[in-house]
Design a protein that fits this description.
124 residues; mainly alpha; 65% helix; 0% strand
């Protein structure tokens, strides 16, 4: 298992209470949270980052990742349309079928105008 995978999943688990409403795990420290935000923002400039994030979530063993709420995850970090698209494509191309369906435009881009949604469906 890649070092990034362990690092990223630990950061998500440590901050699950802050990311997912109703999750009973206490939030991690502020520095840890800022590292998580920084890693997510790298998606825009490095597509491989999205692939590593998707792989981290796909291969994690913690209960949090069994029914991972990708939409809530993306909304919490207020990812822009490009970041959401890149991350959704990484999940769409992943190995877990439940996460592939969460990477569909209907699930991720519901707030976009219909012509943008149609364009995204073309690529996905």
């Amino acid at each position: 298992m890649d070092v990034f995978t362990k690092y990223f999943t630990r950061m998500v688990v440590a901050n699950a209470g802050q990311i997912f409403p109703g999750h009973n795990r206490s939030a991690g420290n502020a520095g840890n949270y800022q590292l998580l935000v920084t890693e997510l923002r790298l998606v825009k400039s490095n597509v491989e980052q999205a692939e590593k994030i998707a792989e981290s979530i796909e291969t994690a063993n913690e209960d949090l990742f069994r029914d991972f709420d990708l939409s809530t995850f993306m909304e919490h970090f207020k990812l822009d349309a490009l970041e959401k698209t890149i991350l959704a494509l990484a999940f769409k191309l992943g190995s877990r079928s439940d996460l592939r369906t969460k990477g569909t435009p209907e699930c991720i881009f519901v707030e976009m105008p219909s012509n943008t949604l149609q364009l995204m469906q073309f690529f996905l």
